[in-house]
Amino acid sequence: MKTFKLLFAVLIIAVAGVSCDSEPVDPVVTDQDPNENPGGGNNNGGNNAGDGTYWPLAMGNKWIYNISNGTTTEVTILGTETLDGQTWYKFGQENTGATGNSFLRISDGDYFLRSSALTAQGASVTGINYVVLKDDIAVNDTWEDSFTQSISYGIPGFPDVEYPVEIDGKILEKGISYMVEGNAYTDVIHSRVWQTMTGDGFVIITTTDTWYAKNVGAIKTVTSTSEETITQTLVSYELN
User: Strand, coil or helix: what is 7?
Assistant: First the structure.
């Protein structure tokens, strides 16, 4: 059971941090309108013009994070893809230990996070699709979502297993100032998302606290399970 929990933690933390393999941008992706969601130039912390959201979306936007395991990671928007008739922004991230693709779209204050299947430690987990943030609700307001996770261990004779995952989100703070890596950010939202996976005789709860700065994006993420805690802090960013 401990091995299972650790595996699930690796995969869910990768998703929570919007992580995936860096890949060449597909030709169809490079057709994105360069004027869509314009950003505000190169920065090393602090606010900028951005696009008025808490996660600026434009091809080439890049964020560099320190991770509490002693590594750094670079998150880049590779472009857009149409999934189920909707436009999603595709992310690439280095040094995650997992393979897969992550996507984000914003609609009426709702931030939808989606991933393809992720693979780590020889096992794979099916993709997700849920609301990771609502930027238009008040402090202490909540939201709910859910999906079903299917896990394949790649072991002959060992069947795939499916588990329901419940999402509970809450806005803890809003409009605050927050310091990360020596940089001061204003107009910050602090949210918490609980992911509860229920199986035969066990429950795995993953808690993710994220601080989002308006016109910047996620400046700090702390993801915890009963086995480990991983923190990502923003070092620098470049927006187009």
Answer: helix
